């Protein structure tokens, strides 16, 4: 009979065979021990898990436009400061603030009475000077024949002639004073010199203006067309300046400019370069560029911030990858590439501009790779994967990517 303990299940049991037992019993006992030893061997290892599935897409190669974006601010085509040109108390503010006004429209009226009194006094002084001049002229006419007959001395005639000249000068001076006071009287009606948008008034009726200075009253801006000013770096200016003739020929003399507003929308009318500043600003190292945009609806106002976007050149046979395939860490960018053996290799890349959901790769790829767009979190260098084609992106073939038009809002970089 077999006797086995629980912790010795796999040992060969001890059997006691009587000397008188037959040899056949011994053979049976040894065979049973062999079967028990085989049953206590190691279990077979489980099969390896299947390779993880990932979504991949081929690198895109095509010509892409190279745009430039500059940040700047709008200003009126003409920004005219309205100032008081004579001293006096303000009688009337004759416009609605923030509305359109026309050339010649009266904006302010300054009290006219002091200047009217001054004009009357100056005219009286002119009349007195004119009478004095007339008298001296008569004196000269009377003395000239007498001097010819030597009835009076030459000295008397000379004095009469000098007095007449002095009187004539006084008349001219009084006429000039009358003109000046008349001009000042006209300045009491402060009018708009242009058609434009008037701002808020800086002074109210009853205020004293023009004492010791030309008091600023308000500002009128012509906003159709409207100007947009932005700064460009010296290096970019040199790059574009060397290609100026080429750019003019390719764009029929003018490069169309898009204006992106603060809310991400695009101004409906395209603009054009209007002027380039004479010198580079030494404090910022930038050169100011001025662009002109039609603004028939008056939506744009002076002082608004925005971005201008224009295409300067086309990059031939550029390499593009989906933005969700790009991983970013501490300003280092990389993509997971699946080779012909389905092994993953991570490659560092240098990225350029973004076109919708695609990113231009400046270096790091040859253009024949397959990159992982989904399932990046589970991958390690050398991992064997089961690649599946990713569904085509709707924006990858959009017209905006083909033409280089800017997206209204920024797309997050490095999306997984």
Order of helices and strands: HEEEEEHHEEEEHHEEEEEEEEEEH
Q: Can you tell me the CATH superfamily of the largest domain? A: RNA polymerase II/Efflux pump adaptor protein, barrel-sandwich hybrid domain
Tell me the helix content.
25-40%
| Reported CATH architecture of the largest domain | Beta Barrel
The major sheet is characterized as:
15 strands, mixed
Q: What is the general shape?
A: elongated
Radius of gyration: 48 Å
CATH class of the largest domain: Mainly Beta
Count of strand segments? 19
Task: Provide the β-strand percentage band.
Answer: 25-35%
Intertermini distance: 70 Å
Mean pLDDT: 83
Summarize the structure.
This protein has 416 residues and is α+β, with helices and mostly antiparallel strands.
Verbal overview:
This protein is an alpha+beta fold. It folds into four domains: 6-39; 54-65 and 314-403, conserved putative lor/sdh protein from methanococcus maripaludis s2 fold (Beta Barrel); 69-76 and 222-313, Beta Barrel (Elongation Factor Tu (Ef-tu), domain 3), CATH 2.40.30.170; 79-219, OB fold (Dihydrolipoamide Acetyltransferase, E2P) (Beta Barrel). Helices cover 26% and strands 34% of the residues. The chain is built from six helices and 19 strands. It has helices at 23-39, 113-148, 154-186, 234-242, 244-250, 399-403, and strands spanning 53-58, 60-83, 88-93, 100-101, 106-110, 189-191, 196-198, 208-209, 216-233, 258-260, 272-276, 286-293, 305-322, 327-329, 332-338, 344-355, 358-363, 370-374, 386-389. It has a 15-stranded mixed β-sheet that branches. Strands 6-5-3-8 form a four-stranded antiparallel β-sheet, with no helix packed on it. A hairpin with a 5-residue loop joins strand 15 and strand 16 (344-355). Helix 2 runs antiparallel to helix 3 (154-186). The radius of gyration is 48 Å and the shape is elongated.
